[in-house]
Amino acid sequence: MSILIDINTKMAVQGITGREASMIVSHTLAYGTKIFAGITPGKGGQHVQGVPVYDTVAEAVKEHDINASLIVVPPAFALDAVLEAIANGIKLIVVTTENIPQHDAVKLLHAARKEKVTIIGPNTVGLINPKDRIKMGSIGGDRPERCFVPGSVGVISRSGGMTAETSWMVKRAGYGVTTSIGIGGDSLIGSTIRDLLILFEKDDETEAVVTFSEPGTSFEEEAAKLLKEGGFTKPLISFVAGKFTESMPEGTVFGHAGAMISGNTGRPSLKMKALKESGARVIEQYDDIISVLQSELEAKVGEVK
Amino acid sequence: MGRMLEDVSKTILKECGIPVPGHSVISNSNEITDQHLSHPCVLKALVPVGKRGKAGAIKFANTVEEAKRKADEILEMTVRNFPVEKVLLEEKINIDEEWYVSITIDSQKQVPVIIATREGGIEVEDLVKDAPEKVVVFYIEPFTQLYPYQAKEIWSKLGVTGKPLVKAAAILCKLYDVFIKFDCYILEINPLVLSKDENVIAAASVMGVDDAALYRHPELEGKVESGSERSWRPLTELEKEMVKVNDADYRGTARYTEMDGGEIGFMCGGGGGSLLSFDALTNLGALPANYTETGGNPSEEKVKGLTKGILSKKGVKGLFVAHNITNNTQIDVMARGVVEALHELGINPKTFPIVVREAGVNDEEGKRIFLEAGITYFGEDLTIEEAAAEMVKKMKGVS
């Protein structure tokens, strides 16, 4: 099993004729993931690397029963692309676009919440399920096998690059992943660490989850709260990068509103404290992923089922 | 995220029908004349930082002489690392009450939020914790506007009534329109002044615009300093150079931040990969001379320019080149850029400590280029932390 994507995923790529998409499409097809349709207005009837292109998501859904969309469009078109996918009943949308204006992000996330649509991103490398060889996004590049092999660990990363590196650490420890997900580098994203932990909790094959975090946001604090409430009971191994940022001068204060809303969240040390107190295995050194994962999963093998 | 100076934001507010004090900008005290002092005036340092009052960079004057003297004082100041080059001169308002209102985006709830209180001023953030009953926090549904009745209710809950209520509600609706129209990430009025003659005036404004949205605001060209949200000082000369290197080519990114001192040139990449690499070095007691994030498949020219910049900083005695395993950044391109920079600067890797940890797209060719240049190269045989340890070991010979 895996979360979010599997053999039933029928993916379309919005913005398939663009420069960005062409590399993603060729790597995805080479990996063995099927892309059922592409959408670019005005390019209906064309083919991109064998994938039929439609003018509208509606046509693609009608022809191919699309249930997942990978959005690879420039920032100015991202909001409309997401709204189009939502309007056509698609329930999983991966938004790769970087630099989407915040006001647009707020709108697209609001629309998704209303229709109970899962958004990964924006600004994400995507997600991968190596057992079924299905990936959505640039994740894995030209050689997904290098970092992503099938196994029993879930990976969640705030950083796209570190999604690969962390999955590679899992491989180095002797294991593989059920699903690895780059959640996106922005503060306004669709699926947070907490949201994905809930899915990994339900997934029988996932025995442990490793997370890679960065300064900023309150995603780790929310995840810690979930653990405390008993919403995630499997081993969680967490690393928070960027501890050095706390000894650097802070950005100069510009207005009071930020502090009034978020208070003190965002500091790596506070994230680590919250996660530790909630029962997560918080590692100080990134390389400790290997030994801690081994000890956690070996302990599990010893359990009587 | 880009900040705006106060005179620019005030001009925008005024154009949008929000009352602001009459204002002008001077860069020399000689420019102050009787005209400016028809009323007592306020002098404010025109710098893109908050808490200027606390820093003593806001002063009052009743006469031209006094105003000139105080303008000179302010022009001598450096407010939180920002040297004052201009002073904002405003008419002083006859204040009855000082209120506070801000509009921003609550990133946890992912909707715009208005925060309002009648107790404006410098310690307003403590109010939310200490006296939440004095603060109204109001969330707005995306895709909609702020309706007049909602604005009215916000002030009414705070006990505002009569003429001031009508005026404050109208102003809040206009402020929300400005927030939406200009893609703000923050619009804060502190204080929003209730004057003795029952007028409501935006006496001080803070406005920040999402630089990702600047493409649809040609009217803001030159008015917003892009990427200034996190700065704690003006950019250094070298940082400005690196911005040029980055802007010269749309492919990939090259971000550069200078540290005080340090001896290891830090040429790392991937947002998370750079954070991890920097932590790894400092955990081992090493001192990186800069922080860098590169990635997104930069061109050879960009890699070369960034590397040269990193190595040109005084006191740099070594170079650490590391990356997470890349999804799209080409290692051979990285290698060519780094090697070319070393070549142009006449740096010999045999005597100058360099450790590379680069794996990912085209890394076989990358490895060949690094090794041929005599550089210590690691791919996925070492973790980032292990490579950082190698770097620190190598530095022992030179520091």
What would you note in describing this structure?
The complex is a heterodimer of chains A (305) and B (399). In chain A, helix 3 (75-87) runs parallel beside helix 4. Chain A has a single domain (11-302), classed as Succinyl-CoA synthetase domains (Rossmann fold), CATH 3.40.50.261. The mean pLDDT of chain A is 93. Chain A has 305 residues and is α/β, with parallel strands linked by helices. Chain A has ten helices and 14 strands. The radius of gyration of chain A is 19 Å and the shape is globular. Chain B has 399 residues and is an alpha+beta fold. Chain B has three domains: 23-91, Dna Ligase, domain 1 (2-Layer Sandwich), CATH 3.30.1490; 95-225, 2-Layer Sandwich (D-amino Acid Aminotransferase, Chain A, domain 1), CATH 3.30.470; 237-395, Rossmann fold (3-Layer(aba) Sandwich). In chain B, 33% of the residues lie in helices and 26% in strands. Chain B is built from eleven helices and 20 strands. In chain B, strands 1, 8, 9, 10, 11, 12, 13 and 14 form an eight-stranded antiparallel sheet that branches. Chain B has a four-stranded antiparallel sheet with strand order 2-7-3-4, covered by helices on one side. The radius of gyration of chain B is 26 Å and the shape is elongated. At the A-B interface, helix 4, helix 5 and helix 8 of A face strand 8, strand 9, helix 3, strand 11 and helix 7 of B.
Largest interface, C-beta closer than 8 angstroms, per-chain residues: A-B, 69 and 72 residues
CA gyration radius of chain B, whole angstroms: 26 Å
Largest sheet of chain B: 8 strands, antiparallel
The CATH topology annotation of the largest domain in chain B reads as Rossmann fold
Question: Radius of gyration of chain A, rounded?
Answer: 19 Å
What keywords describe this structure?
heterodimer; A: 305 residues; alpha/beta; Rossmann fold; 7-stranded mixed sheet; 36% helix; globular; B: 399 residues; Dna Ligase, domain 1; D-amino Acid Aminotransferase, Chain A, domain 1; 3 domains; 8-stranded antiparallel sheet; 11 helices; elongated
